[in-house]
Amino acid sequence: MKLAAALAAAAVFAVLPLLTSSNYVIGIGISALVFTTAAAALNLVYGFTGLLSFAQLGFWGIGGYAAALTVVGLGGSFWSGVVLAGVICGTIALVVGYPMLRTNRHAFVIATLTFALLATLIARDWVSLTRGPLGIPDLPAPEAFGRRFDTPRQFYWIAWAFAMAAIAFLFALCSSRIGRTLVAIKQNEPLVRAQGISPMPYKLAAFALSAAITGAAGGVYCFNLRIIDPTFLDFYYMQTFLIIVIIGGAGSFWGVIGAGIALSALPEALRFSEDLRMIIYGVILVVAMFVMPSGVAGWLRERRLARMREALR
Amino acid sequence: MTIDAVYILQLTLNGLALGLLYALIAVGLSLIFGVMEIINFAHGELLMLGAYAMTFALPVVGLLYWPALAAAILLVMLAGLLVYEILLARLRPDEFERSILITLGLSIILIHTVQYFFTATPRIVDTQYGFDGVEIGNIRITLTRLIGAAAALVAFAGLYSTLRFTQFGRAMRAIAQNREAALMVGIRPRVVARNAMVLAAGLCGLGGAALAPIQLVTPYMGQFLIFKAFALVTIGGLGNIPGAVVAAVVLGLLESVIGGFFASAWQEGSVFVVMIVALLLRPEGLFKRGGMRVG
Fold first, then answer.
1. Which residues form the domain of A45?
2. The whole model's pTM is what?
3. CA–CA distance, A57 with A117 (Å, rounded to integer)
4. Is residue B295 situated within a structural domain?
5. How confident is the model at residue A3 (pLDDT cuts 50, 70, 90)?
6. What DSSP assignment string belongs to A88-102?
7. What is the pLDDT of residues B78-109, one digit of tens each?
8. B290 lies in a domain?
9. DSSP code per residue over chain A
10. Which residue in A117, A131, A239, A294 has the most chain B C-beta atoms within 10 A of its own C-beta, making it the best mutation to test that interface?
11. Taking CB atoms and an 8 Å cutoff, what residues of chain A touch B106?
12. How far is A46 from chain B (nearest CA, A)?
């Protein structure tokens, strides 16, 4: 049922460029696809494994820079850039994730946050690598089979294919035995240990896979913007991913996907006032935490449980 | 590069002043964590509010430093009280992620509200002391910097004696060490948590107000400091107040010295590199946590 709805939504997204001629709508569509993918990756670490990771922002930026520099600096193609972005982010996540995951969950949050800020500082200050605040403009359009994906309309297909592949992979992972182990770690880690399962490799794998997908998503997105500079690591992106996960319901796979699609349109709807936009974002976050702490999906689940209890009475 | 004694001394003094400022923020964070198990993301914004309060209070009182400082501290304490009563009092002790996200939302709201009303243009703050300074040999320190450092030291002494010698402070330490046992002897966690929040906000207000004449005041000034303060409290061990102070002062010195000899990227990055290494060696923080230790 859910899967059928998801496939229908995927089909609608696939034909979106045929339904509209507006590049504006196509642009929002690209953002929706990429942000939803990044939010689904955050959901893997936060929603399923219970590790609130702010490092996603760092991986998003590192992925963007890795992809851009592969093309501009090493002369590689867009495709190798995105793959390399994923590989680099996954490797970094394995290296920094190990010391971070050994700490308790309080320190983990802070450590991931400082990692994200370190990435921002490097993007700004390591001028010989990242070209500093000026950034790397004029990223070339991707090419494949002698075709150039030059316009937003053509780029949309790349974003679509990427999002579908990543979300399908995450779905397969989350609904597998590994996904259930991750949920178990979130719910009761001592019990998982008592069952003879070492939580560390699972946590580390979830962190690294999520980093790889976020990095690749950053790589795709910077080629949509056609420029990368330190504002690519703006905390705004992290807030967007977080709000999608929280409103959708952390730990609910389809809830987060639905929220990603719905909420990617929200910044556009709020664009009438650039200044008030972020205030409204903050208010949404605070109010959501009080009214629906487990998101729309959690709220629906509670309502269903309440109805079942009512029926049993 | 020749090593110049005067240059080194100047760097050391700057580093100490910087470290004491970091410590003001880090101590407040540690106190809040110790008592409530909450990491306050809006802490830097309390600092920013203190700086703005100083900015607007100074012209009103005719550029007099001390009355404006007092007004700023009181205002930020009031803000801390409101934040606690409206938002944090509703949280249960085990809702760690929720507390982070709520204070994160609050931080976004505060930054952008201030930006909306006062614009993002950096402000320069003038006091009765202007750019007067004290000269020790070839070294010159501006008076505002010196007063800021001295005020921080006085605040630490005050905090130490409060936590050590008053019932008010003992209750906070009791809650931090063992919540259930504290409840059993009749300490009310809600009241203590409120006191801790107001106290931490006051320290933050002092930090912001003392910082206002030293550097430019912008809505984003708190954000950068807070992230460093997070790293510091992690290095010092969450909830460990002396650990946070030591980490802050050492890191302030380290940053200043590195900034004097290497590129600025290394200066900013040093805190984070030290944190990753410290976590690798001692996952619980360099100074092991055993409740909130004072002395």
1. 2-312
2. 0.81
3. 9
4. no
5. confident
6. HHHHHHHHHHHHHHH
7. 999 999 998 888 887 777 778 888 888 899 89
8. no
9. -HHHHHHHHHHHHHHHHHH---HHHHHHHHHHHHHHHHHHHHIIIIIIT----SHHHHHHHHHHHHHHHHHHTS---HHHHHHHHHHHHHHHHHHHHHHHHHS-HHHHHHHHHHHHHHHHHHHHH-HHHH-GGG-B--PPPPEETTEE--SHHHHHHHHHHHHHHHHHHHHHHHTSHHHHHHHHHHH-HHHHHHTT--HHHHHHHHHHHHHHHHHHHHHHHHHHHT-B-GGGG-HHHHHHHHHHHHHH-TT-HHHHHHHHHHHHTHHHHGGG-HHHHHHHHHHHHHHHHHH-TTHHHHHHHHHHHHHHHHHH-
10. A117
11. 282, 286
12. 10
Shortest distance, CA A17 to any CA of chain B (angstroms): 35
Q: Report how many domains make up chain B.
A: 1
Q: Which residue does chain A place closest to B111, by CA atoms?
A: A279
> Is the per-residue pLDDT at A7 higher than 60?
yes
B287 belongs to a structural domain: no
CA dist., res. B18 & res. B145, Å (int): 9
Chosen for mutation from B90, B104, B255 (greatest number of chain A CBs closer than 10 Å) is: B104
> Nearest by CB to A114, which of B102, B238, B272?
B272
Which domain range does residue B98 map to?
A: 5-281
Are B98 and A105 a contacting pair at CB < 8 A?
no
Q: Please check whether residue A200 touches B, CB under 8 A.
A: no
| Residues of A whose CB is below 8 A from B279 | 99-100, 102-103, 107, 111
What is the rounded CA–CA span in Å between residue B95 and residue B99? 6
CATH of the domain at A8: 1.10.3470
- In the block, residue with structure tokens 């409204």: A280
**B275 to chain A: closest CA residue:** A111
B295 vs B287: CA distance, rounded Å? 12
> For A209-266, how does the pLDDT look when each residue is reduced to its tens digit (9 = 90+)?
999 999 999 999 988 888 888 888 888 888 888 888 888 888 888 888 888 888 777 7
ipTM at complex level: 0.76
Which of A99, A239, A293 faces B98 most closely, judged by CB atoms?
A: A293
Of A122, A276, A285, the CB nearest to B104: A285
Q: Name the A residues in 96-135 with CB < 8 Å from any B CB.
A: 96, 99-100, 102-107, 109-111, 113-115, 117-118, 121-122, 125-126
CB-CB contact of B166 with B159 (8 Å)? no
Element (H, E) at B236: helix B221-236
Tokens of B102: 């709520």
Chain B CB contacts of A125 below 8 Å: 263-265, 268-269
- Phi, psi (5° rounding) for residue B135? -110, 125
Q: What is the domain-level CATH number for residue B158?
A: 1.10.3470
Identify whether B291 is part of a domain.
Answer: no
The domain tally of chain A equals 1
Cα separation, B77 vs B199, in Å, equals: 7
